[in-house]
Design a protein that fits this description.
The longest helix has 18 residues. The protein contains 7 helices and 8 strands; from the N terminus they run E-H-E-H-E-H-E-H-E-E-H-H-E-H-E. The strands form 2 sheets. A 6-stranded parallel beta sheet has the order 3-8-7-4-6-5. Helix 1 runs antiparallel to helix 3 and helix 5 packs parallel to helix 7. By secondary structure, it is an alpha/beta fold. Helices cover about 40% and strands about 20% of the residues.
Length: about 180
């Protein structure tokens, strides 16, 4: 464990990010979390984070998301299943209330009105909805700073792997400025 105080203010220079870290009362980072920050997480570097379930990968995703929102960008958190999306949406919604970010969810069975994407800071969606958003809302992606792909190992699945790979390839080709944060 590495104390959060090890990160100088120059590394975490966002008031919103500092407010979040203080609010969740985090005193120490796990080594992979610290290394993600040291390896450019907060500078927009695309990263692959691999760690066991329940080890704190979501914190790395939250740091990337809040960092981009603090810079006036938007974020997308994509997961393979509605259940994961619902769980993360509830977490981000609670987070959003405390630090004042707007969160919406878009899955196949639950779709808030996405006509007002300009008012949304973070969209939580399934892989399939991410693909649809990319195809239908190219202008929205100009405003995206980070796309977090949860359970990236699903790319190896025969059912949805090729679609996810195609979606990520299109994002990288059309929008190279977008930070991709993948976790498994």
């Amino acid at each position: 464990m590495i104390p959060t105080s090890m990160l100088e203010r120059e590394v975490i220079n966002s008031e919103l990010l500092l407010k979040y870290i203080n609010q969740i009362k985090i005193k120490e980072f796990r080594s992979f979390q610290y290394h993600a920050i040291q390896n450019g997480l907060l500078e927009g570097q695309s990263l692959l984070v691999s760690a066991p379930s329940g080890s704190g990968k979501t914190l790395v995703a939250e740091l990337a998301i809040i960092n981009m929102i603090s810079k006036g960008k938007k974020a997308i958190y994509a997961a393979p299943y509605r259940a994961i999306c619902n769980e993360k949406y509830e977490r981000f919604l609670e987070l959003g209330k405390s630090i004042k970010i707007n969160v919406t969810i878009s899955t196949s069975d639950f779709n808030k009105n996405l006509a007002n994407l300009d008012e949304t800071d973070l969209v939580v969606c399934t892989y399939e909805r991410l693909d649809s958003l990319l195809r239908l809302n190219q202008d929205f992606f100009e405003k995206i700073g980070v796309v977090v792909i949860d359970e990236i190992h699903e790319m190896g699945e025969s059912y949805r792997g090729a679609r996810l790979e195609g979606t990520l390839t299109r994002i990288k080709m059309k929008f190279p400025q977008i930070q991709l944060k993948n976790q498994m």
